[in-house]
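Continuing the series of single-chain predictions for the mutant panel. This is the parent chain; the variants come on the following pages.
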Amino acid sequence: MNVLRLMGAGVMVCVLAVGIRADDTKDNPKLVVGKWKVAKASPGTFPIGAVIDLNKDDKVKVTAKRDDKEVIHEGTYKVDGAKIIITVKVEGEEQKHILTITKISDTEMVTDHGGGGTIEFKKEK
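Parent structure:
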């Protein structure tokens, strides 16, 4: 009988933990809107200083410097729980980047890049 109670308690803890995690992501679509500047990034992700502008209409504009020239890529994004799925055209080809939010507030965001590595953003005013 004690084993059944223990198993039941374990199941309840798991259900509650999943419910709490789901609530953590419900504000992500609102929190991600704005201009985010890359403050720190793992190699092979986004260049430091790049700006990702995520607007209310699910449009994205990525601005970065490459070889002392400003490069702009435009496309769309969608927020799915803790994931930001960004789709842009680069030299005529569609590229998809999946960023998983590990921390977000009104002023900063930390993500794991789908290709590996971490990116830290600061929100621009």
